[in-house]
Amino acid sequence: MQAVLQDECQVATAKPEKVRVQVAQQIVQVNYAEHAYSPGRIFIQDRESAFSVVSRLYVQYVRILRNLEECYDQVVHPQKRILLRQLLDCTIGRILELKVLS
Predict the structure, then answer these.
(1) What is the phi/psi pair of residue 38, to 5°?
(2) CA 77 to CA 58: how far, in whole Å?
(3) Tens of pLDDT along 18-63?
(4) In a 10 Å sphere around its CB, with 0-12 CB exposed, 13-18 middle and 19+ buried, how is residue 57 labelled?
């Protein structure tokens, strides 16, 4: 019985950690993609291609937001929850910025 409870606890704690690692990788990828389109690097002349870039970034940030929310709901450690809350707030802010641009 005790072994079963330990296995369940390990599975329950493994999922938020796995999601957290995936979110970190997604954030790095989006950050790299945003730097590729930063001012001075590439100048996007037509409106359609600019909209395409912004909408792609918007969708990626929404995916990150959903994963962060899932992770935030499952984590019970206060320090991790504070950090995840800050990441959620920053992600929501970036989504709003991209929504204004589109």
Answers:
(1) -70, 155
(2) 29
(3) 887 888 888 888 888 777 666 655 566 777 877 888 888 899 999 9
(4) buried
Q: Report pTM.
A: 0.73
Question: CATH number for the 2-36+45-101 domain, one of 1.20.120, 1.10.10, 1.20.58, 1.25.40?
Answer: 1.20.58
CA 54 to chain centre: 16
67: which 2 tokens? 């994963």
Q: End-to-end distance of the chain based on CA atoms, in angstroms?
A: 55
The pLDDT assigned to 59 comes to 92
Place of tokens 């912004």: 54
